[in-house]
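Let us practice reading a record.
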Amino acid sequence: MAGREFAVERVLSFRKRSIEEPFASREGSMSQFDFSSNLSLGQYEPLDTPVHRLVPALKMLSVILLGSAVLFSPLFPQLLLLFLFFCLIGWMGNLKIRYLMKGIRPILPFLLLIGVIQIFFISRQLEGDPLFSVWIFKIYREDLFFTARLFARFFCLVLLLSIFTSVTPVTEISHGTEALLKPFGRKQALAHDMSLVVTITFRFIPILAREAEHITKAQASRGASFGTWNMGLLKKIRLYIPLIIPLFIAALERSEILVEAMESRCYEAGARRTRLDEFHWKFADWMVLFLIIVIFSVLFLSRIL
């Protein structure tokens, strides 16, 4: 009996060790499953700050103008000033920059892959001496600068969109989109339908992140290699490809539930609706709009002149 109990204890300890070792041996490996906690885009922070109190239409217009300014900026000093300006907005909104930039981590491998393709395979400089050579590839200074500007623009856009979704709830996004589109459509239904599309898009970002987290944990429990750090970039990309179809099916199921919920509440497109909250422009809103227009105009003129 003693020998049998000893054998059972050995088997149980071996099974326990085989389950815990892949995660216990790598500190922080479980953080790779936390898609929703590592995503700041689409997560609203209910605070009372001057940035939160701006009217929704101004927030939407500011994102459009400042996002265009990021794309227009050809030089690093301009992108750096925009990044610092966005950090100032985040500080005024009582938001941490580290939290706002967490959305870059899940897509950083794909961004690095785009940078490698840009440097090695899509050369923007066909003449002149290369900076250095790697095997059959020639690396030019202009390619490195272009890739660095691409990364800087991407970081600025992620920070801008994270700030926008952190200070603007979903209902205000709908109101702001509808207010901006009203002058461009004779019918109220056009503005309302477009605002509904934008609202659902932002609302589905954290939902899809949670679905991806559930699918990843389910596949890891069945033996997939998620949560390991000692794998290359291409292997990580191949590992995440099987998530596409289950995530697509989950998105269709969620959208079907949303449609049924809207139909059960007798939703009708184009119907006249009232609002619980009415937003009115104040002096501070007009001053912020003037500042945003000045920044956009200066960067746009520096691009074309």
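A brief commentary: The longest strand covers residues 132-134.
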